[in-house]
């Protein structure tokens, strides 16, 4: 097996020091254009690439960002993960995806990430207990943490989130203007220390319009099947004064509910029950669904997280506006 070229060999070929070679491959390092040109030409001739593992020992930075995910049934996770990994790689970082489940909880994940000396941790899921942060196993050296796409109630852990208050005000105003007066809300998986607050604002803005009763039913997780089951249980037990519009906490719940309403119960959307989702999942825009929804500014949200990780933005909670997308389901 052919040995890898070393920084020392590149330095000898370029007629520079080993540290000049290191600077040539270090973002933002001080080096003249001429020296960098010599190093890159020598590196190309020797087929040299930097040993990032060895470099991390000197720089105290591995370039690895741990991403904790605990609800893979939610398909909206994929566009976020695609954007997150793309933007991390563009700035020389790489994502380490950690699956939070019954066999590998947050304490294990934090310990695992810390042992691998990740530079930061992004919490991208529904369940995170603040007491985890004070677990005696973790000590004081845990990497900085950030919450993506949900509010954070964890002291010292900032979040980057879509503005739920603005979103739900726009949604309720639209539904009220369309004449709906018997609203319902389907929430998803229960959150612990990260939340969405969509149900809270949905109720608040309907109350401001004189409608205080909001039918509420919860799904166990964010999935198509859970959305179908939630509305099935409701419609099977309610025939009088049922809701005329259903707001779902995300699009996959809404699509499951819509199929159940039309298929099992033979009702019309939106004539019998209108449907609203959240996220602007691609399938919802198809002619089969025409789902009214709210689009999160995912590229901007991920961009803020990246800047925080790079210390180019203060570590503070940031709320960004999204966009109401009107379609035939309302």
UniProtKB/TrEMBL annotation:
<dbReference type="Pfam" id="PF13377">
    <property type="entry name" value="Peripla_BP_3"/>
</dbReference>
<dbReference type="InterPro" id="IPR046335">
    <property type="entry name" value="LacI/GalR-like_sensor"/>
</dbReference>
<keyword id="KW-0238">DNA-binding</keyword>
<dbReference type="InterPro" id="IPR010982">
    <property type="entry name" value="Lambda_DNA-bd_dom_sf"/>
</dbReference>
<dbReference type="Pfam" id="PF00356">
    <property type="entry name" value="LacI"/>
</dbReference>
<feature type="domain" description="HTH lacI-type">
    <location>
        <begin position="5"/>
        <end position="59"/>
    </location>
</feature>
<keyword id="KW-0804">Transcription</keyword>
<dbReference type="InterPro" id="IPR028082">
    <property type="entry name" value="Peripla_BP_I"/>
</dbReference>
<dbReference type="InterPro" id="IPR000843">
    <property type="entry name" value="HTH_LacI"/>
</dbReference>
<protein>
    <submittedName>
        <fullName>LacI family DNA-binding transcriptional regulator</fullName>
    </submittedName>
</protein>
<keyword id="KW-0805">Transcription regulation</keyword>
<dbReference type="GO" id="GO:0003677">
    <property type="term" value="F:DNA binding"/>
</dbReference>
């Amino acid at each position: 097996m052919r040995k890898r070229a070393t920084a020392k060999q590149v330095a000898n070929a370029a007629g520079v020091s080993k540290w000049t070679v290191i600077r040539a491959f270090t973002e933002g390092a001080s080096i003249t254009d001429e020296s960098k040109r010599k190093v890159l030409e020598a590196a190309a001739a020797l087929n040299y690439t930097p040993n990032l593992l060895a470099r991390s020992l000197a720089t105290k930075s591995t370039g690895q960002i741990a991403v904790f995910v605990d609800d893979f049934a939610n398909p909206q996770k994929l566009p976020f993960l695609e954007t997150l990994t793309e933007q991390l790689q563009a700035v020389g970082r790489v994502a380490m995806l950690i699956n939070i489940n019954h066999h590998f909880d947050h304490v294990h994940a934090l310990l695992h990430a810390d042992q691998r000396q990740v530079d930061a941790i992004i919490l991208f899921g529904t369940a995170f207990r603040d007491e985890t942060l004070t677990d005696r196993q973790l000590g004081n050296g845990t990497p900085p943490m950030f919450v993506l796409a949900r509010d954070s109630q964890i002291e010292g852990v900032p979040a980057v989130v879509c503005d739920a208050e603005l979103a739900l005000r726009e949604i309720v105003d639209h539904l009220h203007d369309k004449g709906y007066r018997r609203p319902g809300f389907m929430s998803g998986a229960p959150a612990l220390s990260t939340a969405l607050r969509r149900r809270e604002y949905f109720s608040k803005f309907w109350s401001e319009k004189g409608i205080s009763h909001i039918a509420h039913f919860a799904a166990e997780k964010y999935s198509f099947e859970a959305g179908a089951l939630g509305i099935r249980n409701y419609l099977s037990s309610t025939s009088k004064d049922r809701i005329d519009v259903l707001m779902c906490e995300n699009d996959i719940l809404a699509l499951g509910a819509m199929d159940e309403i039309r298929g099992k119960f033979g009702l019309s959307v939106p004539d019998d029950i209108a449907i609203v989702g959240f996220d602007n999942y691609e399938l919802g825009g198809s002619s089969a669904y025409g789902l009214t929804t709210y689009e999160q500014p995912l590229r901007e949200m991920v961009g803020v997280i990246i800047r925080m990780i790079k210390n180019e933005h203060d570590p503070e909670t940031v709320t960004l506006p999204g966009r109401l997308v009107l379609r035939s389901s309302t």
